[in-house]
Specification:
Blueprint: E1 6-11, E2 14-19, H1 21-30, H2 40-49, H3 59-78, E3 90-91, E4 94-95, E5 104-105, H4 115-119, E6 125-128, E7 132-135, E8 157-158, H5 163-166
Antiparallel strand pairs: 1-2, 3-4, 5-8, 6-7
């Protein structure tokens, strides 16, 4: 069996490492599944559960986060993007996608001022229609950088404890 893709996605307010997201999204897109279809959430949960454990109490959060993620994927593919895999590089010899260092935006605190987007030139952030900044490319964030935190006056941007990098152990 081919090695499955692995990536971190913010579920609720915490990052979770998930296997097989890219493959699932690609199958759904090829099967004409649209993010707004009523059964998309169930199809995503069924698909992602094949390779990942999803706690029963967190299914709603997983569903919401993954539909949002799929909507971004769908938009990119519909616009002719997204087929070429992004090369995220590595950190200390480990694949970048294995390192859960990236910002999280508090939906309650963000006032959509856009300063984080102006400040970070790596394309980590986007402004969502819901009126707040969202992290769209977590693995383009430079491991160990947290500069954008300083431009966010409402303090809506959070990072993992730096110690997590000092204690990093490879997965698997
Ligand atoms: S700088 Fe802070 S408040 Fe402004 S858009 Fe970014 S996260 Fe939201
Ligand atoms: S920490 Fe640095 S690289 Fe990461 S999103 Fe903020 S400014 Fe961009």
């Amino acid at each position: 069996m081919n090695k499955l893709s692995y990536r971190m996605i913010n579920i609720g307010k915490r990052p979770a490492g998930l296997l097989g997201v890219e493959e699932l999204f690609s199958r759904l897109y090829d099967g004409s599944c649209r993010p707004e279809d009523s059964d998309t959430g169930d199809r995503i949960i069924r698909g992602i559960s094949q390779y990942n454990f999803i706690p029963q109490v967190a299914i709603k959060d997983y569903r919401e986060a993954l539909i949002e993620e799929y909507a971004r994927y769908y938009q990119k593919r519909s616009g002719g993007e997204g087929l070429a895999a992004i090369e995220y590089g590595s950190w200390r010899g480990y694949p970048r996608e294995h390192i859960s260092w990236f910002p999280t935006v508090s939906a309650d605190l963000c006032n959509a001022c856009g300063k984080c987007l102006e400040f970070c030139s790596y394309g980590v952030y986007a402004l969502a229609e819901v009126g707040r900044a969202i992290v769209v490319e977590p693995f383009l964030c430079r491991v160990g950088c947290s500069f954008c935190e300083t431009v966010c006056h409402p303090k809506a941007i959070l990072f993992p404890p730096r110690k997590m990098l000092e204690d990093y152990q490879p997965i698997g």
